[in-house]
Amino acid sequence: xGINERIKNFRxxxxxxxxxxxxxxxxxxATYTQMENGKRxxxxxxxxxxxxxxxxxxxxxxxxxxxxxxxxxxxxxFEKLDENDQAEIxxxxxxxxxxxxxxx
Length: 104
Fold this sequence. Notes:
This protein is mostly helical and 104 residues long. It contains seven helices and no strands.
């Protein structure tokens, strides 16, 4: 599995859109899509920023055998947030759980 596929997997595990990741990187969505499709080289700066966004080490992006679990990624990102943002995330999780229960 190439770095482009690992990046796509991390993005999907975190339920992030290509648009969101592209905005985070300061590029347009089409350029980011080329990165995921292996049609654009991924720079060291890209790896650094993506590892920050995904809450994993650059090594996890570069090496196939070091992928983190989504819960670990979430926990690392969550603890970096301030109290208000953490409360907002918890409210979103509760809302999502309620919506899921209503569909069942």
